TrEMBL record:
The lineage of its organism: Bacteria, Bacillati, Actinomycetota, Actinomycetes, Pseudonocardiales. GO terms for molecular function: monoatomic cation transmembrane transporter activity. Coiled coil: none annotated. This is Cation diffusion facilitator family transporter. One of its GO terms (cellular component) is membrane. GO terms for biological process: zinc ion transport. InterPro entries: Cation_efflux (IPR002524), Cation_efflux_CTD_sf (IPR036837), Cation_efflux_TM (IPR058533), Cation_efflux_TMD_sf (IPR027469), SLC30A9 (IPR040177). Residues 17-226 form the Cation efflux protein transmembrane domain. It is found in: Membrane. The chain crosses the membrane at residues 12-36, 83-103, 123-141, 170-190, 202-219. The keyword Transmembrane applies. Its main location: membrane.
Length: 335
């Protein structure tokens, strides 16, 4: 593992540990404040923080288990464990946070009106919680900004293409936490001003919907990674150009890549070699190209190169079925 990868892994761990400690402390404070004030929105926020704490535990599990080396049973390593545990974290946000918040909100709105007590306690806890969550949020933003600059991408462009779900999960949940705190503050404040607990219940419902939305976004991201997403299109382009420029290759027929984990890319290429080459020449070319790709592009860990004739109709049909025929290009130009 390179120093850059170790640094990135350590940064992700720091981000997750900081968020977990913050969420645990806030969960306890919110629960106590919710019991004292009788605020449904505050109890929903306590459930929100509990869900976030469980999420951090799952993310730490993901970071540790995904670092195990490849073995006989898993020859490509355990990188996708990070995506599995991160998907469970998204489920946790929905099950532990969103469902409880929605239940608490609808119970407050349509149930018997409850009297609010000691709202000042709620304000103080929400204020402290906002400062603590803000600290964790700033750490997540700092990591994403640093990583996006390192890859030459915009902040949001990097979030769309990120292959490490940990900082994205922490950033999204901390952002939702800050918004949730503002909603809870508004619910408690409007309840105090109007004397109606409906506002408190509406705040809980909005918190639940917010958590459900964040859980959906994170679940969709990890689902795509678990199914098997291609590598960064820019990396795919560099690999394609490198192979196409090789003197032994007449045409790059097909190129497939897959993210096998964070910073772990599998490359499978079908190429049409110069017919004048002998079997030994093709073997040496395959080994050289694999070494060049792994050396030049740090994320490339496994390379498979298959010699094929570009004129084969079955292969052509397979490639066009995958990428479409919208550009009507020859098979060696299909990307």
């Amino acid at each position: 593992m390179s120093e850059q990868e170790e640094s990135a892994g350590g940064e992700s761990t720091l981000t997750v540990v900081l968020a977990g400690g913050v969420n645990l402390a806030i969960a306890v404070m919110k629960l106590i404040a919710g019991i004292i004030t009788g605020s449904g929105a505050m109890l929903s926020e306590a459930a929100h923080s509990v869900a976030d704490t469980i999420t951090e535990v799952l993310l730490l599990t993901a970071l540790k288990r995904s670092e195990r080396p490849a073995d006989r049973v898993h020859p490509f390593g355990y990188g996708k464990e990070r995506y599995f545990w991160s998907l469970l974290a998204a489920v946790s946000i929905f099950a532990s946070g969103a469902v409880f918040a929605l239940y608490e909100g609808f119970t407050t709105v349509f149930g018997q009106a409850e009297e609010q007590t000691n709202p000042i306690v709620g304000y103080v806890v929400l204020g402290i919680g906002f400062l603590l969550e803000g600290t964790s949020w700033l750490q997540a933003v700092r990591q994403v900004r640093r990583d996006s600059r390192a890859e030459g991408r915009s902040f949001f462009g990097y979030l769309r293409m990120i292959d490490d779900p940990a900082p994205k999960t922490v950033l999204f949940e901390d952002s939702a936490a800050l918004v949730g705190l503002l909603l809870a503050f508004a619910g408690i404040g409007l309840h105090q001003l109007t004397g109606s607990s409906v506002w408190d219940g509406l705040a809980s419902i909005l918190i639940g919907l917010l958590l459900a939305f964040v859980a959906y976004l994170l679940g969709r991201t990890n689902r795509g990674l678990l199914i098997g997403r291609q590598a960064d299109p820019r990396l795919v382009g560099h690999i394609r150009d490198h192979l196409a420029a090789a003197p032994e290759i007449e045409a790059l027929v097909d190129l497939q890549t897959m993210l096998m984990g964070t910073d772990h890319v599998l490359v499978c290429a079908r190429v049409d070699f110069d017919d004048a080459l002998g079997a030994a020449d093709v073997e040496r070319a395959c080994l050289r190209l694999a070494d060049e790709l792994s050396g030049q592009f740090g994320d490339v860990r496994e390379v498979f190169i298959e010699p094929v004739p570009r004129t084969d109709p079955k292969l052509r049909a397979t490639v066009l079925a995958r990428y479409g025929d919208v550009r009507q290009r020859p098979i060696d130009e299909v990307r």
